[in-house]
Structure formats: C-alpha cells, structure tokens
Design goal:
Blueprint (H helix, E strand, L loop, with lengths): L2 H18 L10 E3 L5 E3 L2 H8 L3 H11 L6 E7 L3 E6 L1 H13 L13 E5 L11 H19 L3 E5 L8 H12 L2 H4 L3 H4 L1 H14 L1 H15 L3 H25 L18 H10 L3 E4 L2 E4 L14 E4 L7 H14 L5 E7 L3 H13 L8 E7 L2 E2 L16 H16 L10 H22 L6 E2 L2 H4 L7 H18 L15 H10 L2 H11 L2 H21 L8 H25 L8
Parallel strand pairs: 5-6, 5-10, 10-11, 12-13
Antiparallel strand pairs: 1-2, 2-4, 3-4, 7-8, 8-9
Helix pairs in contact: 1-3, 2-3, 4-19, 4-22, 6-9, 6-10, 6-11, 9-10, 13-14, 15-16, 18-22, 19-21, 19-22, 20-21, 21-22
The protein binds arginine (ARG).
C-alpha cells in the first residue's frame, strides 16, 4: 500500500477501535481515491449495516475519534457516510524529504527475500530472434531488475532452445558449408534465417540429406563427441548473435545465464523414472503420459502431458518437468516466473499441475507463467513483414532508431551535439521507445506495435519520460547546482508542488506491487503520471527564479527527487536515460 494510504488506514483503524471497541482495530477501513480530498475512508457504510445504525452517524463518530495530529489536515463526512481525508502539507513534505535523503528513495527491501528464478528471452539456437522474443526479453529483464531491487535473490535463466531434432539437419548443413564458414563468421552461417531455411529446404527435398540428418540426431542424442563438437559450433554462433541483441537492448542477460534445454538432457530419464515411481506417469497408446486432474478435451476426455513418446523420444514438456525438478532440488528456488508467450499457457498450466502432483511445486514453491501477449501490426493482425514473414527483432530496432533521429530533430535542444554523441542519444531514444512501449501495456494484452506513436516526445512514451529527465537535469546545469546537493528542506507552498510531492510518495509501493505481481506496466504507468505531475509543477513554479530562498531550495529538492525517481524507475524498466538531449 502507498505510504499515504497506509498511514491513513492506521489512523482510521485506531479511531474505529476507540469508537466501537478493540475488535475493530484491524477492520478494513476501505480507503479509496477521492474526488474531494486526497483519499476517503468508506468503512462507515458496511459498518453501519452491521451495527444497525445510520452510516453518517457512524462516520461522524469515526471522525470524532480520529487522531489527526501530524498527518491529517482535514476530515469531512460527506455523502451517505464517506469520510474525506486530506493529508497535511507538512506531513507530505516530511515524507518527501525522507525519500530525498535516502539512497533507496525510501523503498524498503522485502522482509522475506525469496530465491526467484526469472526465466526469460529463451530464443532458439540457429533461429533469428523475432518480435515475440523482443517482448519476453524486455519484460523479463524488467521483472528481474525490479525483484532484485526489492531485495530478492534473483536467478536469471535463459532457457534457450538448443536441443532436439532440428539439430540433425542443422549440423549436416553446417558440414555441407564447411565448418570454416562458421569460424570465418561467413554470412551463410551468420544469417540464421537463411541458414535455417536452407537446411529445412534440403531436408524436405533431398532424401539423402534427410537420411544423414536423422542419423545425426541419433548420434547427438547418444552423445557422440564429434557431433557434440559440431553442435557446439552452432550454439556459439547463436550465442554471439543473442549477445549482440542483449547488448544493444541493454538487457542484463549474459552467457552465464544460459541454461538451455540441452542442459537437462541427462536429467530427463531420472525425472521420468521418478514420475513413474510415483505412479503419475502411465502408458497410454504406447506413450508415457501424465493426466493432471481438471484438464479435459472437447469430449470431456482427460488430456495427457506426453512425457515419453511411443518411439522413446522425450518432449518439450519432459524438459520443462526436469527443469522444475532441478530448480527445486539443486537451486532451491521458491518462486519461478516464466516470461513466455501467452500461446503456451495451457502447456505451462499442465506442466505445473504435473509438477504439483510430483510434489515439486506446492505451498513453499510457486510457479507462475507471466503470459506475454502477441505483438500486432497496425492492421490489428500478428506483426509480419510485408512479405508475410516474421519480423526480425534487429530490423525493428533499426527502424525505431531511424525514426528517433527524425523526431529528435523536431524538439528544442539547449546545445548542439557532435555526430557520435547525437548517434548515441538517438540510439537510446529508439531503444527506450521500443522498450517502454512494450512495458507500458499489461504484459498479457496483445499490443499494437505502432512506431509512429511510441517514438513521439509527447504522450505516454519512453522519449517523453527520457526528455523529462533531461529537462530536469538542464535546470541544474543552468543553475550551476549539483542535484546531489539539493537537500531542501522541502516545503509545500502551492497545489502543483503538493501534487508532485504526493505522487512521489507512491514510488515504493508501486515498485513493490510490480514485483509482487510480475507486472512492470504498473511502474511504467506510474512513471508517466509522475512526469505529468512534474510538468504541471514545472509550468507553474519557477525554480531557479523562485521568489525567495526557502522556496528555491525546496523546488530544487523536488526537482532532484523527481529526477532520481524517474531515473531509478526507468532503470528498473531497463529504459536508458541520456543525460543531455
Ligand atoms: N524457446 C521457446 C520459444 O522460443 C520458449 C521457451 C519457453 N520456456 C520454457 N521453459 N518452455 O518459443
């Protein structure tokens, strides 16, 4: 709960206890946003019903027992029995001052840190990352950063698709090209889209090649050293490419976080054995299956999770089960967040259900699928290239940066930049625009990838927020003041200052909520509201030319804390904030 809400809730509870007896000390005071005050307590309505009295009377009684000292400037009963509460300016100023003086902006670390694995990005080896991976990468990274900031022990996990039958044809194709081609970083290998496509075409059209590919899969699964060596070459080419994408996007994933599907290869058999021993996996139509309760098909027939196919091969689900078992047994995690596309929702529900049957998941260990909605084109359909193909992530970012350059020239600048500086700023704007757009809608909703909108320096966009931080920095630069030395004291002198300070007080609870629910869009939305409150302040309150000294020091302090909150918040989202624009 935000600080203002918490403190008012406590005061109303104390009043309830004083008025109606100690059993009311932890009644829900029903604190809600208010049109006429900062917040309102609506508890009088349900309580009146219970007590058989008139709500307004009950509200009057709460107001009469309310201790307002130091916190509440005004408490008014209104309407059918609402208690409108206005915080005192001094209290708001004091809380803002506290945040200003705290290195963590008064955001507490959690009482009970958990070991959380955040699984995200998870692209496939020898395949280009596409716009779907863009979103799982960006959202996952924000979730990891937020949980870490809150004091959790975060384990990033990039569950790359680096195993399975396609590797037979991919390895054979590599051999046809000659492995020196990979060493030379030849385009035939580096261009993953065409590499995969050509391998596929040969597999479909050339019986001899297809035969070699099949034999190669068998050799790979049997652990043949030469085959594994070739496989590793492919994995490394892809890793270099993933890395380049992560660096460009400013994503905190490195090679150390990769634990691909191949990692679990040796753990599949023991996992399956445990499921058999526990009577969870049973043979059905020749395949080994688990039937988690509650999952049925159209005719009401139980739906299987196939654990071992009738040909003896293991499945995507088997790997996911082995992964859960390993994370619980060896990593001792107590929360798993899977940042993966929404279309895999049923898969995860069923895998989690089987893991629960096996006792790997339970009250102590939680797993959740943070479902990432599809990215749509402006036509409302799944985003595709003009030719109908999947959109390459790198091309999207290139285009965003190009557009950022055009928009950048339209806004006023305090100074002119040399080419390299300008290029770096524009890159940060383009990347920031794409990331913020991805993060500002609820992660499970589909969203329209609309470059026109997201690249603008106004509206709910990354560039608007970046520009807000730059405008604040420019005040300090012009005044020759170091933001670190703006220590206030903060005093509230007018409505705009008050609105800004009050908004600042919500930061901690918003970060906590975003981490709790794995929903970075809450933080993204809050930062926009904060920037708007700042704009309101900036337009009505001269800072460097403030009328008198205590006011000037206070306004500089408000600027300093707003800047730090915006920069910290944007950093938690992974959105870069250039210092000058
Ligand atoms: N590699 C998969 C893909 O690109 C995503 C993996 C999701 N994670 C998992 N544990 N199954 O679609």
């Amino acid at each position: 709960m935000p600080a203002p809400q918490l403190v008012l809730a406590a005061r109303v509870q104390a009043a309830l206890a004083a008025a109606f007896g100690p059993s009311y000390a932890d009644a829900d005071p029903v604190i809600r946003p208010s049109q006429f005050a900062d917040l309102q307590a609506n508890v009088a309505l349900p309580l009146a019903k219970k007590l058989g009295r008139r709500p307004r009377e009950v509200a009057d009684e709460i107001a009469a027992h309310l201790d307002t000292t130091g916190v509440i400037a005004d408490a008014q009963v209104s309407g059918p029995g609402f208690l409108n509460l206005t915080l005192s300016d001094d209290w708001i100023a004091m809380q803002a001052q506290r945040a200003l003086e705290d290195a963590r902006l008064a955001v507490p670390v959690v009482d009970r840190p958990r070991k959380v694995v955040v699984e995200y990005s998870s692209p496939n080896v020898a395949k280009e990352m596409h716009v779907g991976h863009l979103r799982t990468t960006i959202v996952g990274d924000a979730i990891a950063r937020i949980l870490e900031f809150l004091g959790h022990d975060v384990m990033r996990d990039n569950h790359v698709g680096d195993w399975g039958t396609p590797f037979g044809m991919l390895i054979e194709h590599l051999l046809d090209l000659g492995e020196e081609a990979a060493a030379r970083d030849d385009a035939s290998v580096r261009d993953l889209t065409s590499f995969y496509r050509v391998a596929r075409e040969k597999f479909d059209g050339d019986a001899e090649f297809a035969d070699r590919a099949r034999k190669r899969v068998v050799a790979l699964q049997a652990g043949d050293p030469e085959t594994l060596r070739l496989w590793r070459i492919l994995v490394e080419v892809s890793q270099r490419y993933f890395d380049s994408v992560y660096r460009r996007l400013g994503v905190t994933l490195s090679d150390d976080h990769i634990r691909g599907e191949s990692f679990y290869n040796d753990l599949l058999a023991p996992t399956v054995r445990e499921l058999e021993d526990k009577g969870i996996a049973v043979v059905s139509d020749g395949a080994l299956c688990a039937f988690p309760p509650g999952f049925t098909g159209r005719e009401g027939e139980p739906l299987p999770v196939i654990i071992r196919k009738s040909d003896g091969g293991y499945n995507y689900s088997t790997t996911d089960l082995a992964t859960i078992r390993y994370r619980v047994d060896n990593d001792h995690v107590d929360r798993m967040v899977y940042v993966v596309g929404a279309p895999q929702s049923l898969h995860f529900q069923m895998v989690f259900a089987v893991a629960r049957m096996a006792g790997w998941l339970g009250d102590e260990v939680e797993a959740e699928h943070a479902q990432i909605g599809n990215v749509l084109g402006t036509d409302g359909k799944i985003l595709r290239t003009r030719a109908g193909g999947t959109v390459k992530l790198s091309e999207l970012v290139d285009e965003a940066v190009e557009r950022a350059a055009t928009e950048f020239d339209k806004i006023p600048h305090d100074e002119s930049f040399d080419d390299a500086t300008r290029a770096a700023i524009v890159e940060a704007v383009g990347v920031g625009a794409v990331k913020y757009a991805d993060l500002s809608v609820a992660l499970d909703s589909e969203y329209v990838f609309d470059l026109d909108r997201m690249i603008k320096f106004h509206g709910k966009t990354g560039p608007y927020l970046q520009y807000a931080t730059v405008r604040i920095r420019s005040i300090f630069r012009k005044g020759g003041v170091d933001p670190e030395s703006a220590t206030g004291p903060i005093v509230i002198g007018n409505e705009a200052e008050r609105a800004l300070a009050l908004k600042l007080l919500d930061f901690g609870s918003i970060v906590a909520q975003s981490g709790e629910t794995s929903e970075p869009h809450r933080l993204a939305g809050y930062l926009f509201e904060l920037a708007q409150a700042y704009t309101g302040f900036f337009e009505t309150c001269p800072v460097l030319k403030a009328p008198d000294e205590p006011t000037r020091a206070s306004r500089l302090a408000l600027c300093a804390i707003t800047l730090r909150t915006l920069v910290t918040g944007l950093d938690l989202l992974g959105v870069p904030t250039p210092e000058r624009m």
